[in-house]
Amino acid sequence: MVIIPSMATIRIPPVLRASVGGEKEVSASGGNVGEVLRDLASSYPATQDQLFSAEGELNRYVNVYLNDEDVRVLDGLDTAVRDGDVLVILPAMAGG
Amino acid sequence: MSPSGAELLRRIKSQIDEVDPSEVKELIDEGVTIVDVRGSEEFATGHLPGAKSIPRGHLESRIESAAPDRSAELIVYCASGNRSAYAARTLREDLGYEHVRSMTGGITLWKDRGYEVEVPRTLSGEQRERYSRHLLIPEIGAEGQQKLLDAKVLLLGAGGLGSPTALYLAAAGVGTLGIVDDDEVDLSNLQRQVIHSTQRIGIPKVDSAEESIHALNPDVQVVKYPVRIDASNIVEIIEGYDVIVDGVDNFPTRYLLNDATVRLKIPVVSASILGFDGQLSVFKPYEGPCYRCLFREPPPAELAPSCGANGVLGVLPGTMGLLQATEVIKLIVGIGEPAIGRLLLYDALGATLTEVKVHRDPDCPICSRDPEDITDEELGSFPDYEAFCAAAG
After folding, report:
1. What is the pLDDT of residue B393?
2. Which of A40, B108, B188, B213 has the fewest CB atoms within 10 Å around its CB?
3. A15 touches chain B (CB under 8 A)
4. A69 touches chain B (CB under 8 A)
């Protein structure tokens, strides 16, 4: 059986847009959140260190939402992604 | 044949529980919830001490905010005990309040017994005129306006977010506005900081803000704090405020504010802006997540452009600041669904408003603990912050 990875839309926060050529949204594929984000990092290497720690974990200061739910209350990076899902990457902002 | 009004009332009264004013008098001291179901004008002429006003016509829609616990004891009354009998039946039969009783003889019998009556403060003629558009909205009305006039709101920063928030809260009649800002008005502020003006360049922002607020609404008392908020003064400054508006431009103060407000259980309406994007959420300690539940730690310097000078669309703090002001008013008046446990994301270029869920973190270093266990030393602390800001310049 061939597993076709899902295609997801990733919303890019302002601070990461320079790393993806200025785009607000990009597409990436994978069967779960971790795979989709690693696919993003392989297409746009500048995002690798911003998203992942040296150990390959998602950085604590980056929140990732699958549709509107925090992946930390789902299965983290193992959370399954379906075609058409939207991943929101959200670092904290402090401007006032 | 349909029963007559009198017959219906007799039947209703046989189906509900009643309570004598003498017992109600004792229950008041125990903090039992008492609801006055008369009209607002009747309530304004005097009511039982501590009673909440919910005119019978609004009973179903408003009772939950006054009496969230349906198994707790609840007493309703009116002028003579008739309208409250109907209300008691509705509350028990339709809304599931298990221990609701109607006070026999209403406030008339209460007064005849010589018991204490509380007369609510009324708005002056000028106030009724000034706030007339609020008084016309049932969700606010005279009672809500009085809550606004009694409220104390602290604004952290009289900058981009603080400017519109302060102006609209002043216009809405928030009685006391505290403003913390140690900065002076600069020409480059005026692209967005609409509470200041060209003539006031160079003067302290707290003074400039006070002038605009008083020009708009002399009723508002302005408390000025021309200081930089830090761990040594934060508790002293924020204590006693009902709601805090966070519009600060740096992470250390945001974390410091979070920790101190969790300890003091003060809700914070928080927003941040960058470029064309805004974020907003309401952090109500122990009812919803706190800022650390949302962002456990600040991002490193290269992902935290707040330490340096960054551009922002001038109207964006207006948009986000007014969403903040709206949340503040909702919290004070007790209406609607504040953005607790939700983070709103506004994208000005796309003209989209999306939201994501924010959960309380059971391992949150601050709000997973009792407020009295949070020490002074812990307020606003996280590892390597000095290095973080130094790197960001």
Report:
1. 40
2. B188
3. yes
4. yes
Look over chain B and give the mean of its residue pLDDT values, rounded to a whole number. 92
For residue B189, the chain A residue with the least C-alpha distance is A96
Q: What domains sit in chain B, N to C, each tagged with a CATH number?
A: 5-112 (3.40.250.10), 151-392 (3.40.50.720)
Written as six digits, the tokens of B180 are: 């913390």
Strands B99-103, B152-156: parallel, antiparallel or unpaired by DSSP?
A: unpaired
Of A62, A88, A91, nearest to B356 by CB-CB distance is: A88
Please give the Cα distance from B265 to B31 (Å, whole number): 21
* pLDDT beyond 80 at B308: no
Helix (H), strand (E) at residue B266? none
Residue range B157-184: mean pLDDT, rounded: 97
Going by C-alpha positions, the residue among B377, A71, A73 that lies closest to residue A85 is A71
Nearest residue to B78 (alpha-carbon basis) of B114, B113, B102: B102
Identify whether the C-beta of residue B169 lies closer than 8 Å to the C-beta of residue B162: no
ipTM of the complex: 0.91
From CA B163, how far away is CA B87, in angstroms rounded? 45
Do residues B117 and B46 lie in contact, with contact meaning Cβ atoms separated by under 8 Å?
yes
Contact in structure between B231 and B248 (CB atoms under 8 Å): no
Please give the average per-residue pLDDT across B330-342, as a whole number: 97
Indicate whether B390 pLDDT > 60: no
Report which residue type is found at A31: G
Q: Would the CB atoms of A94 and B157 count as touching at under 8 Å?
A: no
pTM for the whole structure: 0.77
Q: Domain residue spans in chain A? A: 6-91
Pick the CATH number of A6-91 from 3.40.50.1100, 3.10.20.30, 2.60.40.420, 3.40.30.10: 3.10.20.30
DSSP per-residue codes, B368-382: TS-GGG--GGGTT--
Binning pLDDT at 50, 70 and 90, where does residue B305 land? low
